[in-house]
Specification:
The structure is a single chain. This protein has 176 residues and is an alpha/beta fold. Helices cover 36% and strands 18% of the residues. The chain contains five helices and seven strands, in the order βαβαβαβαβββα. The chain has helices at 18-29, 56-67, 84-91, 117-129, 157-175, and strands at 4-10, 34-38, 70-75, 104-109, 139-142, 149-150, 153-154. The strands form two sheets. It has a five-stranded parallel β-sheet with strand order 2-1-3-4-5, with helices on both faces. It has a two-stranded antiparallel sheet with strand order 6-7. β3, α3 and β4 form a beta-alpha-beta unit. The longest helix is centred in the last third of the chain and has 19 residues, at 157-175. 37% of the residues are buried. The chain binds flavin mononucleotide.
Length: 176
């Protein structure tokens, strides 16, 4: 039987990104019959403009989405919004509908109390426009993230439970 494949996309390009740590931790919580990869190369995707042809990086991004059974996006908030690099990459998928009906989990993490809620709300709107498959349990905001990770993994028990719940909800969406 084909294993369920999950694609992780981090909205942060930083090497020691807290959002990428969350994605990696979520990947480690998936059942062993899942496969998980984090997309590398968001920063190689050119600025989107309608009519431009896909570059190799764009094709790689779209192919990674197409080959995944579900997608998890974990992003920081910049200036109350979605990081431009992430929004730009998603804009490339509008015309080809790569995310259409794709089950998603959407996570924002922030060192602030707000948990990146503005970015989360904005990203959810974009993913609605892109026709992704999600429900009211598909979104998670993680405030005060710096105290919840150590040595490259999430250590906070409550957050680990929330990530497990995201995995379970995603599996249900894949099966629905
Ligand atoms: C230019 C800039 C703008 C930021 N704006 C926000 C913001 O609006 N809301 C917020 O919660 N955090 C904001 N932050 C803080 C980020 O959430 C923080 O740097 C976070 O660690 C970035 O995520 P990462 O660790 O995954 O790279 C901002 C950081 C920078 C550098």
């Amino acid at each position: 039987m084909k294993r369920i494949h999950i694609l992780g996309i981090s909205g942060s390009l930083r090497a020691d990104s807290t959002n990428t740590v969350i994605l990696k931790t979520l990947g480690s919580l998936l059942p062993s019959d899942f496969t998980f990869e984090i997309f590398e190369g968001l920063d190689e995707i050119p600025h989107f403009s309608p009519g431009l042809f896909d570059t190799e990086a764009v094709t790689r991004f779209k192919t990674a989405i197409q080959q995944a059974d579900a997608v998890v996006i974990c992003t920081p908030e910049y200036a109350f919004g979605v990081p431009g690099t992430l929004k730009n990459a998603l804009d490339w998928t509008v015309g080809t509908g790569d995310l259409s009906d794709k089950p998603v989990s959407v996570i924002s993490a922030s060192p602030l109390n707000s948990g990146g809620n503005n970015a989360l709300a904005s990203l959810l709107l974009t993913l609605t426009a892109l026709g992704t498959r999600k429900n009211e349990a598909s979104a998670l905001s993680i405030p005060n993230v710096k105290g919840k990770i150590a040595d490259g993994v999430v250590t906070d028990a409550h957050t680990l439970g929330e990530l497990r719940a995201q995995c379970a909800n995603l599996l249900n969406l894949v099966k629905s």
